[in-house]
## 1
Amino acid sequence: MTADLAIVLCLLAVTIALLAVNRPRMDAVALMMMVALPLTGVIGVEEALRGLSDPNVVLIAALFVIGEGLVRTGVAQKLGDLLVRHAGRSEAGMITLLMVMVATIGAFMSSTGVVAIFIPIVLRVAANASIPAGRLMMPLSMAALISGMMSLIATAPNLVVQSQLMAMGHEGFSFFAYTPFGLPILILAVLYMLAARHWLAPDAPRPAVAVRPSFAQFIEHYHLAGREHRLRLTPSSPWVGKCLGELDLRAAAGINILAVDRATRFNRVLIRPQAETRLRTGDVLFLDVFNPETDIIEFARTFGLEKLGLTGNYFTDQAQSIGMAELLIPPRSALVGHSVVEARFRSVHDLAVIGLKRGPTPHDGPIAHERLQAGDTLLVVGPWRAIRRVQSDRHTLIPLAMPSELDEVIDKPNLAPVAIAVLVLVVAMMASGIVPNVLAALIGCLLLGLFGCV
């Protein structure tokens, strides 16, 4: 055994040991070995850095960027919603659909990137369905591994073999050459996971420890349950054509208009309520009725409104568009001694106050004209951008608690069609062979950047 071979074997053993204990991170281990090999004289610096220019390295990095674009535009979360909608609360259905989705998506991008996208989805789905997370995490991992057998670009080894074949003058594999081997293995893996799922995690899920309160907990703590309603303007409503400022519902009926849901040509959008917002037939008003004496049924009948049902708690359902936060009034705040109405709270901060606590006790009566005191906590709802603006200015209000739903807010939901179109274009270019795979992925990254998806 030569000295160089002995050094390489020792470094390999150290690398395996470090990767096994996961200390330090994998990327740090790789960089350490990249430095160690030239220092020991086994290879030169140019040889050590030559791999960074390999097209496969660039391709894998580009696929991670595409995956991030899918996360930021909400495509990944839509996949989670699709999983819940079609599988319901069936554990077997979730495992089957999850593995098929992961293997399919993993065929067109890095399997590591797919896992990174689906981990928060799986955790949220498992929590909502009261399923132990382990029973979905293992199928997720297995499906991601099997996705490497579904297409040419699904995993790095496929690309390395392809490069070596072509470098030696042989014909490379087609884009879906691996698929006939991957599909049967995927089917067998799904069947195995369905049979073995009871051994993956105990039947009783461990109660999750919430780092931050949820919307539902905020509503419970401030005694707000049952206050949210959804009403649609009919053609006979006297409100059609009027501005919200003319109605003055807060003073007249003890009602906050949180948002206006309006149909556009292609979809429905949530409009931030302003005094000059003019109502149209078919608009859906999301209301917070803080006056307990308001009879919402009679109110709807009087003003030609149709009462609509709610699919669960309103605030949670609309978490992507409307945020919620608990704010503390500091001693030197300009709000001290003024009511919410006097301070023009909604106009100044673009937030609606729906709850008030003085000490540990929530204020059960109307709060619009209640004089605010230092130490009061306000529960507010409004656009996430307005809540983030309050976070940056702590002179008037101090953010006391931010909801757990903040972690799931999508940065650019309106760009989801763009991200999907770019992904389809990249896959089409790779499958057709019009351009090399790495160029197709880089074109996708460039388009995502130009359109603002990443």
Note: The chain has three domains: 3-53, 75-199, 214-402.
## 2
Amino acid sequence: MPSLPPKHTWVNTDEGVE
């Protein structure tokens, strides 16, 4: 898992990123 901001945890489903 890349070092992404906490906000990306919920947006990951929309982005399609695990």
Note: The CA atoms of residues 10 and 17 lie 10 Å apart.
